[in-house]
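REQUEST FORM: STRUCTURE PREDICTION
Request ID: SP-0412
Submitted by: Lab K.M.
Chain count: 1
Length (residues): 257
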Amino acid sequence: MRIVIKVGTSTLAHETGNINIRRVEALCKVISDLKNAGNEIILVSSGAIGMGLGKLCIPEKPQDIPTKQAAAAVGQCELMYTYDKLFSEYNHTVAQILLVGLDIQNKIRNQNFCNTLFRLLELGVLPIVNENDTVSTDEIEIGDNDTLSAIVATNVKADLLILLSDIDGLYTTDPHKNPQAQLIHTVERITPKITSLAGGIGSKLGTGGMSTKIKAAQKANRCGIDMIIANGKNPDILYDIVDGKQVGTRFIAKKEV
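STATUS: Completed
RESULT:
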């Protein structure tokens, strides 16, 4: 299978912004094993700003763009160094791709991006994609990596999109406020009722939330791609997903006959 896996900042880092070493090591090990089994993997990774804030000892995500860009510049180095080191231990080569909105919106730039991505997959490389937060601005930003992962999945005609987050999936109500909330295992159609379950924003270091995930599902489903929201606290969950087991919330695409 060709799988796009998106990992959020809350999966990669502690609340301090510092890298969650045990979890990232486990994630790289599982993804390497899935590649060894013949799957093509594209990793859409958040975490640059969060890790940069940790290294700069800034406790919360800033609101001003220059500080965000500075944190991204610092954090992206650590993020890719970590991935390169860990995936190399399993004999996998990684490549960094940083995008801004114009790379998607402009037809020629988008084609160049796709050409590079397909060639990397042919060469057996693991592409790691992130928004270029060091240079992006309000006018050209994609905004969040849930959206970016859906864009990547549709561009490469992925078989599956997986969003690893700090929540098990979509619930009937907010599980942080209501202990009676029930996990919705399957969404066959994204209705206004489903959209209304989205709730608010994500963690203090991240940019997304359930709302951006549902929008990503809509984008992926329209192109015939199933999307799964699952909890990334235990990366072994990826094995269950690839094996077709019921994990998290699966948004079912309507396949063309």
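NOTES: Residues 65-88 form the longest helix (24 residues).
Reviewed by: T.R.
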